[in-house]
């Protein structure tokens, strides 16, 4: 069952209280999914892996995040369609189609993280072959009891609105997860591409929720932005066979806040130097535990793993004398002795990094560990120019002008963030840290002379 602090029934809808969004409405059919074993497992999957060992409050899980995204996607969809109608004096969809698409989006949002491995992104390195957590999500919505629950919601929807408005696991996956879905004859353009943008774009509701939720539980201000203003200025740009989620010019500052929040959260939290090394130790530990050093591909076997199971196995490995398990449980983190600048490096910066690495390797007994931002499973925030043909970027709608503006044309502030983050770090054991730092200090100061 769904155990929450506040739960009350209102017209066949239950409400729970969320620390980020307040009351969240949930229908009876959605509640069945939340009460299912695959969804309840998300209570035991930490949102930010080992970050709680750095930021003690970061104990939150994929469970609350998934429900929060479902709540946000409803508000975003409603606001975008309402603003479109005001701007164009016509509805984007009729009432039945609007309700259908809204329910589809809510189910995609609710189930989108079901496939996460223990400790979320940190352990994805241990998937077999080219599998990703989205592949496990597909297996879960196709092969577990959730499949029938989604189909039951679809059957009730068809009874109310007609056979055209079906909802199935296959439909959800075609819209959200399928690679090259345009090749599927059942794919509806541009509608389905538009729907996906609420869950996978530069302004999607997944990012909106995790930025606010992560910053709240970490106790930092980096991820905060004006959510209500951003949501209230969402709109739709539609022309010919193009339909895209857009932002009105009045919401530009809120969108700038949102982008900058992603930027700072990546640098300060998601790519925190201590958290990154703890993730590395965690991966090494899980590799010791798993059969063939990989997560199983069978969905039921996979669902048997969560953070608590992995943690207990690591403790057992420690008792059996595994050094890596002991290092992780005692949080024996190597010291970061050199870190590059945040953005693209010229040849001089690359040469400096390579020379420092070479000189550190010459110190007797030293063993270095390298880490780079492009190895992070978290998406690196990069601003893309708006392109109506590819659908990339976010169109900015300006009053009295038919053609949308490019975000980078409108925001001088965000122009400075269109370069990729490319941090490189070198770690050494604490016993060598002082000597290594002295070498780095001497070299860098010599270079400046």
What does this 3D model show about the protein?
- α5 packs across α6, α12 crosses α14 and α16 crosses α19.
- This protein has a domain of 301 residues: Hypothetical protein af1432, CATH 1.10.3210.
- The N terminus is likely disordered.
- The chain is built from 19 helices and ten strands.
- The protein is an alpha+beta fold and 449 residues long.
- 49% of the residues lie in helices and 11% in strands.
Features:
19 helices, Hypothetical protein af1432, three-stranded antiparallel beta sheet, 10 strands, alpha+beta, disordered N terminus, 449 residues
**What share of the residues lie within helices?**
40-55%
- Shape call: globular
The N- to C-terminal Cα distance equals: 67 Å
* Beta strands, count: 10
Written as H for each helix and E for each strand, in order along the chain, the element string is: EEEHHHHHHHHHHEEHHHHHEHEEEHHEH
Structural class: alpha+beta
Low-confidence stretches: 1-10
Which CATH class of the domain at 7-274 and 383-415 is shown?
Answer: Mainly Alpha
| Main sheet makeup | 4 strands, mixed
Instruction: State the strand order across the main sheet.
Output: 4-5-8-9
């Amino acid at each position: 069952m769904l155990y929450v602090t506040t739960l009350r029934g209102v017209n066949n809808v239950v409400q729970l209280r969320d620390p980020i969004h307040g009351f969240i409405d949930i229908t009876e059919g959605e509640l069945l999914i939340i009460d299912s074993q695959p969804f309840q497992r998300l209570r035991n999957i930490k949102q930010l892996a080992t970050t709680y060992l750095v930021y003690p409050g970061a104990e939150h899980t994929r469970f609350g995040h998934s429900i929060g995204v479902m709540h946000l996607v409803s508000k975003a969809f409603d606001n975008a369609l309402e603003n479109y109608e005001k701007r164009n004096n016509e509805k984007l969809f009729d009432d039945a189609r609007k309700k259908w698409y809204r329910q589809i989006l809510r189910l995609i949002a609710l189930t989108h993280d079901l496939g996460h491995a223990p400790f979320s992104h940190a352990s994805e390195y241990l998937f077999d072959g080219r599998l990703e957590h989205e592949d496990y999500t597909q297996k879960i919505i196709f092969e577990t009891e959730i499949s029938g629950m989604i189909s039951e919601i679809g059957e009730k929807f068809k009874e109310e609105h007609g056979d055209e408005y079906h909802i199935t696991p296959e439909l959800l996956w075609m819209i959200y997860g399928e690679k090259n879905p345009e090749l599927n004859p059942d794919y509806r353009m541009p509608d389905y591409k538009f729907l996906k943008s609420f869950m996978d774009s530069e302004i999607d509701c997944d990012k909106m929720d995790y930025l606010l939720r992560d910053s709240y539980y970490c106790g930092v201000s980096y991820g905060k932005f004006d959510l209500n203003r951003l949501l209230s200025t969402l709109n739709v740009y539609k022309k010919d066979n193009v339909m895209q989620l857009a932002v009105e010019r009045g919401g530009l500052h809120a969108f700038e806040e949102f982008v900058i929040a992603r930027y700072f959260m990546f640098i300060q939290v998601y790519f925190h130097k201590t958290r990154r090394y703890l993730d590395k130790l965690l991966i090494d530990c899980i590799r010791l535990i798993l059969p063939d050093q990989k997560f199983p591909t069978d969905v039921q076997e996979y669902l048997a793993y969560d953070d608590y199971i992995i943690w207990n196995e690591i403790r057992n490995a420690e008792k059996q004398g595994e050094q890596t398990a002991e290092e992780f449980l005692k949080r024996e983190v190597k010291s970061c002795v050199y870190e590059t600048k945040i953005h693209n490096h010229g040849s001089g910066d690359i040469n400096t990094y390579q020379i420092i690495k070479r000189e550190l390797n010459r110190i007797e007994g030293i063993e270095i560990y390298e880490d780079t931002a492009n190895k992070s499973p978290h998406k690196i925030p990069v601003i893309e120019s708006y392109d109506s043909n590819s659908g990339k970027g976010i169109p900015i709608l300006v009053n009295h002008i038919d053609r949308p503006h490019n975000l980078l044309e409108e925001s001088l502030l965000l122009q400075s963030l269109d370069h990729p983050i490319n941090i490189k770090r070198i770690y050494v054991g604490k016993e060598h840290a002082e000597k290594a730092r002295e070498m780095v200090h001497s070299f860098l100061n010599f270079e400046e002379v």
